[in-house]
Write a structure and sequence with these properties.
Elements: H1 52-75, E1 85-89, E2 97-99, E3 115-117, E4 123-128, H2 135-147, E5 153-157, H3 160-166, E6 186-189, H4 199-209, E7 215-218, E8 222-227, H5 230-255, H6 265-275, H7 278-295
Parallel strand pairs: 6-7
Antiparallel strand pairs: 1-2, 1-5, 2-3, 3-4, 5-8, 7-8
């Protein structure tokens, strides 16, 4: 029997550059036929609509994808009693947002159960479900939507691995290709001021996120992510929670003497330039969206 190799020669150093790639990060990730007639679906045409008909279509699309995002979170086991919320700006009433009702399981979310919240934090009297909302959810999300006008969606819940890693008050390391989603794209909120029942705490979290970050680790609390779409927001959250699990596993192995490797800044920046692009993150949730719509048609009710 041939001896088992115990080492390998070092690979030659090689770094890629976006200068040789398409200017559109989405177009770097797929290829159709030679004739160029096979393409992936882009955002629906009405996503940039300004007319009433288009905006009404967008409202229904936003509500559907919000309900599906909750089903996705339910599938991942993120339900934790009354905790957890995702909000999305209404396409027509821009200072209002849609969110989940108080005490309804993520896995049972439907379009008709979604609540429209006014700027003052009350349930809209005529549009949406007439159900109570989570007060902490309003304080956190209203502050973020106010501070970040370019953000359409924000999501927060108490996922298992996110909670565990949050106790360290540290960002996740860039140790895997998937973790490049968080390269120069994460904040840590170090102050745990108790359950969020004051507007000031929501404002502090929004301030910590800054003008650009889409991901935050709330120390001793959990995770929070933002998105141009609810799809981006929900997928980013799931990816961050998984990276927290990876980080905990790596730390356990490192404690036993195994050295961990951090991705080089140049390579992380190159990868982030493609995978952090909002349309790419949006498409990452698409397989889950299609699966849920196929297997759980009740979400349309």
């Amino acid at each position: 029997m041939a001896p088992i190799a115990t080492g390998t020669a070092p690979a030659p150093e090689f770094h890629q550059s976006v200068s040789d790639l398409s200017k559109n990060p989405l177009e770097r990730t797929w290829r159709g036929n030679r004739e160029g007639t096979l393409k992936i679906d882009a955002y629906p045409d009405f996503m940039h609509a300004t007319d009433e008909e288009g905006l009404l279509k967008k409202r229904e699309w936003v509500k559907l994808h919000l309900a599906v995002a909750f089903r996705f979170w339910g599938k991942l086991g993120y339900g934790e009693g009354i905790s957890g919320h995702i909000t999305v700006r209404d396409p027509i009433l821009r200072d209002h947002f849609w969110m989940n009702p108080f005490g309804v399981h993520f896995s049972s979310m439907t379009i008709s159960k979604l609540v429209l919240v006014t700027p003052e934090g009350y349930v809209h009297p005529t549009l949406g479900a007439q159900l109570p909302i989570n007060m902490a959810g309003f304080y956190i999300h209203s502050a973020i939507h106010h501070a970040r006008p370019e953000v359409e969606a924000a999501g927060h819940c108490h996922s298992l691995h996110g909670k565990a890693w949050s106790a360290f008050g540290r960002p996740v390391d860039i140790t895997t290709q998937d973790s490049c989603l968080f390269y120069d794209n994460q904040a840590v909120y170090h102050n745990f001021g108790g359950i969020v029942l004051a507007a000031e705490e929501g404002a502090n979290i929004a301030k910590t996120l800054g003008p650009r970050n889409k991901c935050a680790i709330l120390q001793n609390h959990g995770l929070l992510t933002l998105g141009h779409t609810v799809d981006e927001c929900a997928y980013l959250f799931s990816a961050l929670d998984k990276q927290c699990k990876v980080q905990l596993m790596i730390e356990a192995a490192a404690a036993g003497g195994i050295k961990k490797s951090i991705i080089d800044d140049e390579d992380a920046k190159f990868t982030a330039a493609t995978i952090q692009y909002h349309e790419n993150v949006y498409y990452n949730l698409n397989p889950e969206v299609q699966l849920i719509l196929e297997r759980e048609p009740g979400v349309l009710n």
